[in-house]
Amino acid sequence: MTNCMSPDSPFEDPDLKDPYFISRNIMAEPDYIEDDNPELIRPQKLVNPVKTSRNHQDLHRELLMNQKRGLAPQNKPELQKVMEKRKRDQVIKQKEEEAQKKKSDLEIELLKRQQKLEQLELEKQKLQEEQENAPEFVKVKGNLRRTGQEVAQAQES
Known about the structure:
Layout: H1 19-26, H2 31-34, H3 49-52, H4 54-69, H5 78-101, H6 105-133, H7 136-156
């Protein structure tokens, strides 16, 4: 069996039987790549008017210098800062509320007991402060009553 195809043919090479290689060899290359034909208009990359503007170049240069020096760009407006702070506070408040809703019955009871104990401690402290701040004759009167009661109990027994 004689092969009439040339050895350079893609159909001849067993590695190149993939249809991708076949279609690639069939496609024609553009003319402007091969020749330097002066009649053809060659494609050129479009100019970006933003990058060519003087203001953009100055701004870009300034940002690069500030970045090298470690300076941040201009700060945000005050209104924007306040709005972001409110939003953060609102998110934190929502999370706290969700955490409160998720508390179990045991945690709720423990919190109630803790609050009661704190109230009792505050009342004791107030009583002690009142006794310490009371005039001397009130203290003596209280001591006399106690001793009188103790004497009466001792005589009865």
